[in-house]
Amino acid sequence: MTAQTYLAYDYPLLSAFWTMLWFFLWIMWFILLFRIIGDIFRDDALGGWGKAGWLLCVIIVPFLGVLVYLIARGKSMGHRELESAKAQQSAFDTYIRETAGGASSADELAKLSEIRARGDITDEEFRRAKELVLSGHGASAGTGSATPTSTSSTSSTSASGR
C-alpha cells in the first residue's frame, strides 16, 4: 500500500479555510474578467482597434491586462455602467407609459361620462374634454377652468358618499 489516502484528520480546518478562500477568489476573478470584457464591448468611445487591443491584452496576459485596464479605465467603467442603467430605466419607463396609455384614455372617457351623468359638467365641457382625450392630450390638459373645479367637487362628493 504505497498510495496515500487522505482522511478527515489529514486535512485540517485551516487548510479547508484556505481552499475555500482561493476558490472564491478564483470565482471573483472570473466575474471581474467578464465584467471588463463586457465593458470593453459596451464602450462607444473606443474604436475597433482599441477594443481589439484591450481584449487581446486581457486574454493573453490576463492578470496584468485586467490590472492595467482597471487602473487606466476603472473610473469611467462605473460611469458607463451607470449610463447604461439609466438608459435601460428610461426605456422601461417609456414602455410602461406607452403600454398603459391605451387603457388610461378609456378610463378617462368613462370618468368623464360619469361626471356628465351626475350633471357636474355641461355637454359642451364634456365634448371638449372628450376631444382632448381622443387627441391624446388628456382630460386634465386643457378642459378649461370649469373642469378642474368640477372634478374637485366630484371627488369631494364621492368621498362624502362613501
The separation of the N and C termini measures 89 Å
* Biggest sheet architecture: none
Structural class: mainly alpha
Low-confidence stretches: 139-162
Give the number of helices: 5
Shape, principal axes of CA atoms = elongated
- In angstroms, what is the radius of gyration? 32 Å
How many E-type strands? Answer: 0
Question: Strand share of the residues?
Answer: under 5%
Mean pLDDT: 78
Give the topology string: H per helix, E per strand: HHHHH
Secondary structure: helix percent: over 70%
Polypeptide structure, described:
With 162 residues, the chain is an all-alpha fold. Helix content is 80%, strand content 0%. The protein is built from 5 helices and no strands. It has helices at residues 13-42, 48-60, 62-118, 123-135, 146-161. α1 (13-42) packs antiparallel against α2 and α3 runs antiparallel to α4. The longest helix has 57 residues, at 62-118. The radius of gyration is 32 Å and the shape is elongated.
Strands, helices and their partners?
Elements (H helix, E strand, L loop, with lengths): L12 H30 L5 H13 L1 H57 L4 H13 L10 H16 L1
Helix pairs in contact: 1-2, 1-3, 2-3, 3-4
